[in-house]
Amino acid sequence: MFPILVRFFSEKDGVKVKVIDLVDAYGESSEIIVNLLNSAMNKLNINKKLVAFCGDNAACNFGNVNRTGTNNVFYKLKQLYPGLIGVGCAAHIVHNTLKKACDKMPFDVEMIVVKIYSHFYLFTVRVAKLKKVCESVDVEYKKQIGYSKTRFLGLLSSVDSILRIFDGLKEYFLGDPNTPKSLLLFFEDPRAKMWLLFLRDQATIFTAKYIATNNHFDLESSDTDLFDQFTYLERFVTEEKIQSWEENGTATDQR
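Structure (tokenized):
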């Protein structure tokens, strides 16, 4: 099934998004898609009002990264509608933004999340042990949520599931002689929970700004949130404070 949506402006209701057709497409080539789009617009007589084409950032839709190809939907639509503007998938752009930002963190967050999840996935004995550890540190056990690289913003729920039982996970992995070195180094770092909290807040900024009723992003006033929080983090967490926390054995949630 191939859905066709239009975004338009109404003086009465503002910006609206409507499904104008749902077609049982016989293929996914650029030629087939262009014909379906053109047919739907001609049917409703809105072809003269077309301003932009928005779609997934796939090769079939936009060609290469510079949009210089000719065998794609955008190029072929421009032959029919000169001056057409190409708009990539906003959700994927936001995903990539968050992904690039995470690459600057002092650890590979994707690797950590995947390793923690896979360590317990389908291993009931390990889960049972983790539950006992959580009980010993007075933490209510919560099941870990998996993560797929195809949708980077899905990382939010995975990181949040780790933070909910962070002290239990830390106790579990630091006490297990078979813990992978990468996880051992991560949980030995006194700043590990702080970085995860920081990451969760940033992921929340990107995901919680959806306007559900209109299915579009509302990033108003959030463009400086990341900078403000990072600046505060950089100024507050000094090497001296970290050393003091370690010497005094300050609990992570009290730092």
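Strands lie at 2-10, 14-23, 52-54, 85-87, 210-211, 216-217. The radius of gyration is 24 Å.
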